Amino acid sequence: MGIFNKSKKIMSVKENEKTLHRNLKFTATEQYKLLRANLSFTLPEDCECAIIGVTSAMRGEGKSTTAVNLSYVLAESGKRVLLIDGDMRLPSIARKMKLSNSPGLTDLLKGEETIQMGIFKSSQLNNWYIMPAGDLPPNPSELLGSKRMANSLKVLSANFDYIIIDLPPVNIVSDALTISKFITGVIVVVREDYTEKKELETCFRQLKLSDVKVLGCVINESKNGKGSYGKYKYKRYYKYYKTYGNYDSAET
Ligand SMILES: Nc1ncnc2c1ncn2[C@@H]1O[C@H](COP(=O)(O)OP(=O)(O)O)[C@@H](O)[C@H]1O
Ligand SMILES: [Mg+2]
To answer: What's the pTM value of the predicted model, to 2 decimals?
Structure first.
């Protein structure tokens, strides 16, 4: 693993429950494995390290859940995998994995840490690594689209078969679009009975305009979305819009 052998941080994950969402049943695990298999058909043949962004139209559709579970099943199949939390405004990978959120990607992009310092290594699977988001920077979109990001991905891709990046939603901020020139493609997560058609259309329009390669879509929580999640829909949309809205206006 080259430079990553020195990584001292050990993430302790004893049971699948901590990585695969606790509500996920056997069928969901199988679906992630199917996603893993389907991915191999959509990736370019000469791709030595696939850098895959996971995004969606809005918040709460299951991007982070998908990114964690996909990276896990890929690592489980023996691939060397790095999961990066690229949602710097609302990071959630560290929380989901019970890790500290800092240092992480933002420290790396600010140039304050060497690459391996922000990376946690799983003690459950020795080929599964996680880079949390790090402290919130004032300019997340610029950082993700920066030369330093491109260079970091280049170094990282020599050490991994897959890099999965949990990205913010396309319709709220431009981060997912700014990083697109450095990645192989994106997976778009759609939550059944949650994602609105109009929002989805906007999302795909934006991705097309920015020439982002869409590798495929994940329909999250198919069939079961109505009950417990439907009622939070408005609240969740609102909260995210508000949070990102603040940063966007601070940037201009
Ligand atoms: N298929 C699912 N079944 C049950 N809960 C889910 C599922 N997908 C996501 N969740 C839950 O929904 C919430 C939002 O998911 P998350 O992956 O954080 O969304 P996003 O990253 O798109 O904002 C989280 O609390 C997550 O645990
Ligand atoms: Mg998320």
So the answer is: 0.85
Tens of pLDDT along 180-207? 999 999 999 998 888 889 999 999 999 9
- Residue 2's pLDDT band (boundaries 50, 70, 90)? low
> Does the C-beta of 60 come closer than 6 Å to ligand 1?
yes
The answer to whether 212 and 78 are in contact (CB under 8 A) is no
Bridge pairing between strands 162-166 and 81-85: parallel
- Fold classification of 2-16+45-251 is Rossmann fold (3.40.50)
Cα-based distances in Å from 136 to 16, 37, 107? 29, 35, 9
State which of 20, 21, 35 you would mutate to test the pocket of ligand 1, scoring each by most atoms of that ligand within 8 A of its C-beta: 21
Residue 96 CA to residue 91 CA, distance in Å, equals: 10
CB 80 less than 6 A from any atom of ligand 1? no
CA distances to 31, 63, 159, 224 from 220, rounded to whole Å, are: 10, 9, 30, 9
Find the mean pLDDT for residues 81-110. Answer: 91
In this structure, the residue with its CA closest to atom 25 of ligand 1 is 60
Contact 63, 54 (CB under 8 A): yes
What is the rounded CA–CA span in Å between residue 30 and residue 55?
A: 21
